[in-house]
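Hi Y.,

Following your request, here is the sequence exactly as I used it, all 446 residues.
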Amino acid sequence: MTHALISGDDDQLADLLELFLDRVLREGCGPIELSGTVANIDWLSSGSHCAAAAKNAPKFFCGLVVVDVTSRCTGGISRLEMRYYSQPGMVPRRREASMPAAPRLLSLATALPPYELSQEDVIRRVQALFDGAPALERLLPVFTNSGIRSRYSCVPIEWYDRPHGWAERNRVYIASALDLLEATTIRLLDRAGVGKQAIDAVVTVSTTGIATPSLDALLIERMGLRRDVRRLPIFGLGCAGGVIGLARAASQALACPGETVLFLVVELCALSFRRDDWSKSNIVATALFGDGAAGALLSTAGAGPAIVATGEHTWPGSLGVMGWDIADDGFSAVFSRDIPQLVATEFRAVADEFLARHGLALDDIDRFVCHPGGAKVVTAIEHALGLRQGALAGARHVLRDYGNMSAATVMFVLEQMLNEASRWDLALMNALGPGFTAGFLVLDNR
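Below is the corresponding structure, written out as tokens. Let me know if you'd prefer a different format.
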């Protein structure tokens, strides 16, 4: 057994550990297995950061660190047991040269279903279908003030003239979603210049239908992806799914350096239209919702903007702000009229808190990639972040041309930003969804 107690500052510790590991390799009897425990974490001034730093030593260090290392040779393997003790009150400091590689966007793509619906055609259809509905004329300005000129649907507009049960809607959802996911994946692989066998994991986000086996399993079968691909289907994030789902895919890529993660999101929101529902929420959903899909390939190996920070905030007592009610004929949208006011008054504080946790401030951000939930929500975000009116032009353009495609929408905004921005350093992605939850993600292009 080899034992050592090593202490020093962060510049010395890496060299000391390297010498010790070299000695173990020379004196040991085979490959090395590492295990570690973190001591005295509760009192650290920046607990979670320091804990992560200690767990990942020697990559990160918190001021003066003492490492107790024991080596045991058992069954042909050299086992190292490490314990880290950080001095109290130290501010975490990072060794840039030893930073683990960040997940990067290797490629990004979007896809649309075949049927384009103009807002004028939708208004005429609604007037015909809801003729005689109470307060219809009072609610029609929702369409004209939505900021939407067109959107896309997986079924022709005539499909909405007839009633459809949940089973039929869901059959259309599965077939159309799979087509869009396949088209998105083909584009992603082509833009990244890799083959389908390069995919190691698939993260799929969707909240507008149900599929078991899930959509990722159906895609693996249709496209002939590798049989050892890891799958993570995610349901229930709603409009926040584009940001939070991308964050989950980034975590997968970070956990398996060098592997390629396929992130996909598809939402067929228009299928939730309910012709016999005269509620304001259904009218608002009819005015806003469109269908679409998007995706990205991520890996720590390769070039592209790096995902350097992710986070969420769920407001207390906000479960009824947004979501689905389940009716006999399918999903029924739930929207609180207070969403724009909540965003205007409370969004800034949680955005500041998220950025501060990662050593950033709003002044460090030079691009904002926001989910355009609606024209009023976009204006509220501009107000909350202290941006000039009209600053989120990219979000407004996507809303105008495609409507609110739930989780997929923010990926369309990101694609537009990447195509148009000539030079940028840090971009903040954000989206709001059921919970009521804000999702955040920072991209670093430096």
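Residues 166-192 form the longest helix (27 residues).

Thanks again,
Q.
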